[in-house]
Design goal:
single chain, Alpha/beta knot, seven-stranded parallel sheet, four-stranded mixed sheet, 11 strands, 19% strand
Length: 275
């Protein structure tokens, strides 16, 4: 069992808590029992499992479900605590390869685009909402890293099940890259839907979200928490929708607003079956 705080595994795990560390190693750190269970549930195996003796004693079922090729590393509680970002970790972490992330459907017709979202909690929640809504692909113009621990925890593992592409190494490049994807989508017959506050001042009309035909090939675009959609991204939208609410609230949290917008297509499908 590894009990020394100076053991190389401590620095290795800490590096994987950073974007550069993940890119350099092509590995993703998953903290906690829930994310380990999620990766097993969707039919993938971790490369390594790092766990305390107490966790191993209490989780025979999970251990027995692992392949013999999984490298099992026993560490002390103290070593795990200083290696991870979670306060009071539950006793386990694991590593997966970038190759274990889901691949994109070649012909998605329901896509979510996120314009420079900054909050990893919002990002993770939106991934979870998108999975519930059967989104097939997520495009990200930079913003928070979906593979950060805060995003992964907030998504409850949804990030491990949804294909995504994060564009750009600077804000300008990210916005331009997303704009290009949206323009190509329009050329391919997609409606590109910008989401706005009901009090937004825009040069075009926005409609309540339920008035839109969500059964068409669609890209829903959600904007930055503070500034909304970048003007370049806004110019790519073919129409706009809003989520009407009381004027006592200037705007809704983007993660909260995403849920009814994303699920409207599900409601439309159910209604069409009834009709």
């Amino acid at each position: 069992m590894i009990s020394s705080r100076r053991n190389p595994i401590v620095q290795r795990l800490k590096r994987l808590c950073t974007l550069k560390g993940r890119r350099d190693s092509s590995l993703i750190l998953l903290e906690g029992t829930h994310l380990l269970q999620e990766i097993i549930k969707i039919g993938r195996m971790p490369l390594e499992v790092i766990a305390t003796e107490e966790w191993l004693r209490n989780n025979y079922e999970i251990i027995n479900s692992l392949s013999n090729q999984v490298n099992l590393i026993k560490v002390s509680k103290e070593v795990l605590e200083i290696s991870l970002t979670t306060i009071n970790p539950d006793g386990v972490a694991c590593l997966i390869s970038f190759k274990d992330l889901p691949e994109s459907n070649n012909n998605p017709d329901y896509i979510l685009a996120l314009d420079r979202l900054q909050d990893p909690g919002n990002l993770g929640t939106i991934f979870r909402n998108a999975l519930a809504a059967e989104i097939e692909m997520i495009w990200l113009a930079l913003g928070a890293d979906p593979l950060s621990q805060k995003s992964l925890r907030a998504s409850s593992g949804a990030i491990l099940q949804l294909p995504f592409h994060r564009f750009g190494c600077s804000e300008d490049l990210a916005v331009q890259a997303l704009a290009q994807k949206l323009k190509v989508a329009v050329q391919n017959g997609f409606q590109v839907i910008g989401a706005y506050s009901p009090n937004s001042s825009l040069p075009f009309e926005i409609m309540p979200y339920w008035e839109l035909d969500w059964m068409r090939p669609t890209v829903l675009v959600l904007g930055n928490e503070g500034n909304g959609l970048h003007p370049i991204i806004q110019a790519c939208c073919t129409c706009g929708v809003t989520l009407p609410h009381s004027k006592a609230v200037e705007s809704l949290n983007v993660a909260s607003a995403s849920l009814p917008l994303l699920l409207e297509r599900q409601r439309a499908k159910m209604t069409s079956y009834i009709d």
